[in-house]
Every structure is written in structure tokens, then in C-alpha cells.
Amino acid sequence: MNIHEYQAKEILRAYGAPVTRGLAAFSSQEAETAAQTLGGIAFVVKAQIHAGGRGKGTFKELPAGAKGGVRVVRTPADVKASAAEMLGHTLVTLQTGPSGKQVGRLYVEEGASIDKEFYLSMLVDRASSRVAFVVSTEGGMDIEEVAHSSPEKIVTFSVDPATGIQPLHGRKVAQALGLSGDLGKQAVTLTASLFEAFTQTDMSLLEINPLVVTKDGRLVCLDAKVSFDSNALFRHPDVAQLRDESEEDAKEIEASRYDLSYIALDGTIGCMVNGAGLAMATMDIIKLYGMEPANFLDVGGGATKEKVTAAFKIITADPNVEGILVNIFGGIMRCDVIAEGVIAAVRQVGLTVPLVVRLAGTNVEEGKKIIRESGLNVIPADDLDDAAQKIVAAVKKEAA
Ligand code: GDP
Ligand code: MN
């Protein structure tokens, strides 16, 4: 689960990490009031969307040349004016994709005068089974680009869970960023605070880009992107309530209500599969035969008829879907339950695109019989290869 920058900074602040003072605002009036409350001679108005690259982003509704989603301004009146330009408008950044994201919230911060911009992130490194740090002097820019063009400027290390965070880790960060003296000490403290925040709240990613040195010699987290491990959210009700459903795909929200592992994708073949590995293989083979999957969907092992029905409805509700491939290898999952779920969903929502069903395993004969006797226009398939070819052919035929 992702959260907004202002929420992430509140968590970091609670763990003692240095962030600038700021207030969230939902209207231009609130933004102006926030600036008056903060006081000072410079403010930053920041669009709150679940995507980075806001500074260099552009608003769809504003004329070319208008400023982006991160603006440094001088007075509360300027804050209000910028807020009015951003709220309700669509911000397009490298990370949002061309459709962009509508801005519904802002964060108003006191302006910082920046001396240097660095990069620091933390993530769960699956290879070492540890929390890893990624640090670079090249902050404020696209880290993928740095990794590509000058990989030597990126320093990574991980923390042994047996020892936890140690001053030596902080010194590694300081060294990587060329910080000594008081700034070096600040880096050590910051590293420990970030590690505490990360592990205590079960984050899966924490990215500070940029981490800055201000002209008055302070190390400050100027941006913060945080993702949490959704499987650990039950331990953190306070974190769970930070969820902003308006930032998420409506189909994914619906799927999460039924405890379905569903990820929306850009292709045209809707997939309903049991087991994550089989779902991945199904997506691969659709691509092999020249089309793209519209989603990843693992209905899980012991799915009920209701769950299968819900899954099928989510797939058919996607306007991009031109064909559906159901691929079930029944182990714990029974083929007759799948068949009943599919039939029930089709009866409720209709079927306007070709549907290929491949069933194998437990109760396969019952499953096939249910589908055969339903009178529905379902194309049966025997194996994965056959199924993928059949759905691709059927979609092409419809298009022709
Ligand atoms: P992103 O573009 O979505 O990653 O948003 P950031 O929060 O990283 O802001 C983008 C850039 O705006 C930063 O890299 C800074 O260069 C600049 N910026 C952000 N806050 C301030 C500030 O307080 N003062 C100044 N001078 N620049 C800022
Ligand atoms: Mn940033």
C-alpha cells in the first residue's frame, strides 16, 4: 500500500527524522491558511499524488509553460493562487503515464534553501533477506538514469537483522555522501531513525529523493515516498487508515474486497487463473502468441463460487478486455466450483467477448459438464498452449 508524501513525512517526523514543517490542504483557502500558519518568507506547494516526478510534471488543463506540481513561492497569496491552479486538475508525470492523476490534496511546506541534493532509499532486498540502503550523491533526479549512466555513484549495503542498525551503517551513509563533522553525525542519527521507522511500521520501500543539505547546514528529507507491506497492515491500523482509495485502480479495490490477488494491466486478454505461478505463465504465453494480458489474477486455492463470480465480473467490467482466458489447474481448487462461478457471473453480467476455458485436475469432468450444459458460448481448451492460441485467434477473428 502506498501513501502520500505528507503522510510519509508525518511518520518520519514521529521517528525523529528531520523533515520540513508543513500542512496538508484540500482547498486553495486551506492552502493559504496553512501558509499563514507556517509563516516565513518562502513556501513550497506540492501536489499530493501517488507518483513521483511531480516537479517536472505538467498539468493537462493548464497552458504549456505553466509550472509543475512542486512550486516554490513567496507569499500566502501566491500559495493560494498556485493551489487553485493545481487542485482538481490532472498532473502528468513520467510515473503517472499519459493519463495523469487528478490532484485532490496539497502539501504546503516552509521553503528550504538547498545546498546539495542526495538520494537515499531503503527496501527489502529479497536476495539477502535483509533491509538494504541505496545511497547516492546524485539526488533530485531519476535514480534509474543514474544507475544506468554512472553506477559507480550508487552505494548499497544491507543491515544484518541479528545486529540491527549500528553507527557503522550511518557512517557508511555519511561516507557515501561525502559528509563529515556535524553533517556526518546528522547522517548517523538520520540513518538510525529511518531504519527504526522502516522496520517498526513494516515498510517495503522508503525513498528520500532528494535528501538535502540546507545552506544552514542541516540534513533534511525533502521528499518521501513510502510503500508498506500489505500483508503486515493488520498490525498497523493507524497506517491502514492512511489509504487513499482515490489513488488506486477501482478494479483493484473491488478485488481486494474479495481477497483476490488482482493487478490491472494494459493489455486486452482478461485472465482468471489459480496460483500465482500459473497466472504468470498464462500471461507469458498470451504474450508469446502475440497479445497482451489485461490483468494478473490469482483466485487462490480455496475460492468459493461467490469469489469466482466477483473475479469474473471485475474482468468483464474492464473496457479494454477483448477476450477472456480462464485457466484452472484444480488441486485444492475444484473445477466444478470454477465452472459454477463463471456461469453465474456470465448469467448476471452477460458475455460480449470470446471466452476460452481450460480446466484440469480435481473434478474436471464435472466442471466441463457444467459448462457444456450451460448452453453458453464457451470455447473449451485442453492445455495452456492450446488455450492461449484459441483466445488469441478468437479475439483476432472478432476484430476482423
Ligand atoms: P518529485 O518531483 O515528485 O520527486 O517532488 P520533490 O519533492 O522531489 O520535488 C522536486 C524538486 O523540487 C526537488 O528535487 C527540489 O529541487 C525542489 N524543491 C522541493 N522542495 C523545495 C524547497 O523547499 N526549496 C527549493 N528551493 N526547492 C525545493
Ligand atoms: Mn522527489
Question: What's the arrangement of secondary structure elements?
Answer:
Layout: H1 5-14, E1 22-25, H2 28-38, E2 43-47, E3 58-59, E4 70-73, H3 76-86, E5 90-92, E6 101-102, E7 106-110, E8 114-125, E9 130-136, H4 143-149, E10 154-159, H5 167-177, H6 181-200, E11 203-214, E12 219-221, E13 225-228, H7 237-240, H8 250-257, E14 261-264, E15 269-273, H9 276-288, E16 295-298, H10 305-316, E17 323-330, H11 335-349, E18 355-361, H12 364-373, E19 378-381, H13 384-399
Parallel strand pairs: 15-17, 17-18, 18-19
Antiparallel strand pairs: 1-7, 2-4, 2-7, 3-5, 5-6, 8-9, 8-11, 9-10, 11-12, 11-13, 14-16
Helix pairs in contact: 2-3, 5-6, 10-11, 11-12
Residues 52, 209, 223 line the site of manganese (II) ion.
List keywords for this structure.
binds manganese (II) ion, Rossmann fold, Succinyl-CoA_synth-like, succinate-CoA ligase (ADP-forming) activity, alpha+beta, 13 helices, Dna Ligase, domain 1, six-stranded antiparallel beta sheet, nucleotide-binding, binds guanosine-5'-diphosphate, 400 residues, magnesium, elongated, four-stranded antiparallel beta sheet, ligase, D-amino Acid Aminotransferase, Chain A, domain 1, 3 domains
